[in-house]
Amino acid sequence: MTGIETGFAIFGVMLVLMVGRVPIGIAMFIVGFGGYLHLTGGNVAALLNSLKNLAYARLSNYDLVVIPLFLLMGQFATHGGLSKALFRFVGAFIGHRKGGIAMAAIGACAGFGAICGSSVATAATMGQVALPELRRFGYSGSLATGTLAAGGTLGIMIPPSVPLVIYAILTQESIGKLFMAAVVPGVIAMLGYMLVVKIIVTLKPGAGPAGPRVGWPERLRCLLQVLPVLLVFLVVIVGIYGGWANPTEAAAIGAAACGAIAIIGGGMRGKGLIDSALGTAQATAMIYLVLLGADMMNTTLAISQMPAELANWVKASGLSPLLVMAMILLIYIFLGCVMDALAMILLTIPIFYPMVMALDFWGMSASDKSIWFGILALMVVEIGLVHPPVGLNVYIINRLAKDVPLTETFKGVIPFLVSDAIRTTLLLFFPVISLYLVHAFKQ
Amino acid sequence: MHDAEPVEQAPQGDGFGAAGRFLLTVTKNVAIAGGLVFVGLVAMSIVSIVGRKLFAWPVPGDVELLQMCAAFASSAFFAYCHMANGDVKVDFFTHNLAPRTVARLDAIGSLLVGAFGTVLAWRTAVGALAVHEVGETSAVLAIPVWIAQALMVPGFALLAAAGFYMCAHRLHLSGRVLR
Question: How many CA atoms does the CB half-sphere of B88 hold within 13 Å?
């Protein structure tokens, strides 16, 4: 078999295992294991030898430690009541407009995304805070739940972002640059979602009534309560990008700051700490298991040379680079029907990255191309969290809103998906949106 | 592809026997201990960063301590995640199947998890012994690296136990409760 054939066989068997409910990380490990034996002609000794260091090499990776630290930071932020403060803050400024409370929920999701690297956690946390308020003011079920499911995706779009960390580790790209590049697209996503709410309430004024107007003294009080969030975000992003803290240190600072906020402001005590530790443990194990499996599979894919052969083939085929990129993005959207964001990144980046790097996009430099593709990939894997049939965020929000049927929530999400599609197209054709800040603040 | 969300706990210990409840308690406490190690690492990092910026005196060997502790603390997370049904898996194609069939498929999945845990525990132990023989130590504090590696073995052994237990448990479920 050629490398490409072996590569495809690996993917085929893996998909069968996954469909049969084998945990994704284990499915990747098994095909990596089997593929390795096949490619080395049954060299068991070499395989066993390479496994000796697999777990330690991966789990002691200094950059990777940011993942549990960011997850811990998100746990603390949840216990610290910051979600409530953020929602009140944005609501105090725009809640009196038509649809204002839904917009406030989106703004608060973005704010929470700035201290939390996970979409699911953002959706769940903000949902608990904002959903009762939205319903109290008489927002329609589809608008309220659609807003929160879509808003939750801001959790990974606005840095820190766990999928971007994984992308950075797989491609040896700078975490700081990727985070910086994600800021403007993340803000555009937030504004786009707010615009969607605005359009919906203009067309159907009954869907999103205005809330009460809030005076300036109260607004300033709310601002004071969210200052810590702003501070943590700035320390993490500017610290990493400015080069005076590496990503792991910045994540530690962020976690410590959110921990302090949770203890002082949120009244977190022993039980909260233990819950945070356990939540971090589970979320980390979920990611790391997939990561260990991906390591085994990627070793085998590298031996098969399938990624390089496929990249050469695509390059030699003379297909237009933009067409190839569009196809890659579409594949992500289809994969998003059955898989979660991290599994998609781990599964596809080893294949797609060499392909993208081999193609020419408007003469972009290699480092620009790699950052631009990282942001594009992040945007499309995020869409998988909200589109039917499995959109995880949709289920989480729907479970919180017991009176809203699932079909209503999916209907509510569709306008936000249109905004996602427009934004992704913009980012595809105008790489400068992602790269502007990276270039403007050269390290 | 349901990853159990960090905020809301996945249903735990569904129909577990005494052995299962014991294993769940053990894995849960081990996971909490691992999580608290990370809380400790955060504290150490803060002391080190403040020390370095203000007094040009970081915690000696902070990077290697972080790496070693992170490795064995993370290995403590896996078993609990499996016991709490936290694995990332694709459930889109099987959600219309009979619960009994799903339980059987999950039993196979758990068996494979058990095998994975066994292989990693075994190979990591062999790896730790090899490093011990070479006598490799960390650069600053001269801590023997094999210790950190050896501390990962119990985590993977526990994962193996969790996988095999869950396999038996799910077969039991598919045979009795869901008939």
Answer: 27
Mutate to test the interface with B, among A62, A112, A284, A396 (most CBs of B within 10 A): A284
Q: Is A20 on the interface with B (CB under 8 A)?
A: yes
CB B83 within 8 A of CB B12: yes
Q: Is the peptide bond before A389 cis (omega within 30 degrees of 0)?
A: yes
Q: Is A246 on the interface with B (CB under 8 A)?
A: no
> Contact A329/A380 with Cβ under 8 angstroms?
yes
Query: Which chain B residues are closer than 8 Å to A273 by Cβ?
Result: 36, 39
**Does A338 contact B90 at a Cβ distance shorter than 8 Å?**
yes
| B144: three-class secondary structure by DSSP | strand
Rounded-to-integer distance, Cα A311 and Cα A289, Å: 28
Query: pTM for this one?
Result: 0.89
Contact A131, A140 (CB under 8 A): no
What ipTM, to 2 d.p.? 0.90
Closest CB from B38, B63, B87 relative to A289: B87
Residues 103-122 of A with CB under 8 A from B: 118, 120-121
Q: Does B4 touch chain A (CB under 8 A)?
A: yes
Q: Nearest CA of chain B to the CA of A340: how many Å?
A: 6
Q: Give me the residues paired with residue B137 across strands.
A: B144
Q: How far apart are CA B147 and CA A403, in angstroms?
A: 54
From the list B70, B89, B123, which residue is nearest A24 (CB)?
A: B89
Chain B residue numbers with beta carbons less than 8 Å from the beta carbon of A71 are 6
* Closest Cβ opposite residue A339 in set B10, B68, B90: B90
Instruction: Going from the first residue of chain A to its last (443 residues), give the mean pLDDT of each consecutive group of 10, the final group possibly shorter.
Output: 80 89 92 92 89 91 91 87 88 89 93 85 88 89 92 90 91 90 94 95 87 87 86 83 83 91 83 92 91 91 86 86 91 82 87 91 91 94 80 83 86 93 94 90 66
